[in-house]
Amino acid sequence: GNSVTQMEGPVTLSEEAFLTINCTYTATGYPSLFWYVQYPGEGLQLLLKATKADDKGSNKGFEATYRKETTSFHLEKGSVQVSDSAVYFCALSDRAGGTSYGKLTFGQGTILTVHP
Amino acid sequence: DAGVTQSPTHLIKTRGQHVTLRCSPISGHKSVSWYQQVLGQGPQFIFQYYEKEERGRGNFPDRFSARQFPNYSSELNVNALLLGDSALYLCASSSLSGNTEAFFGQGTRLTVV
User: What's the pLDDT score for residue B100?
Assistant: First the structure.
């Protein structure tokens, strides 16, 4: 079945540091890939997405490139801010017949804490 | 436009009781999915409904059931609650067109005591 693996353990950075959160996946077919962010006490917000190989998703300074050859979708940001502190989830959506029924498979999440 | 709305936001139940959680999708979205997020983990897929029909079911016991109404809102029911059912229950809606993406509500925090 489908699965998503994110880097282990929380990430703690100083403001303006470079961020990478690793994500690899296992899937049949050609999944769409997503990064969601969850702020304390809230639901999930879509951060960015990519729907085919070599696509780059970007939003709010965050980027991730769909790498089919390495089955990866690593999240990066050049300069993090305190307000980026949250939990980040990598996810994939399986596709059947060219459409997706919206079922998402999530990684375990990565806690990001940014200090001033 | 209103996003995905869920009710209630919090509730506390006793073991063995039954609970009903409600979700209203974004206007125009016909697909609703339910996820369970246990503290410290990623969300796990429970159900997906489209046009009032179940289109997918995750690895959850039969104590979990759901339905979708003609206005596309949805209910998730859990019978015979266990302590392990304590979690954040998330509802997501999508338009089911091409490269669909899911929009999540704020969730219902269920605590079973």
Answer: 62
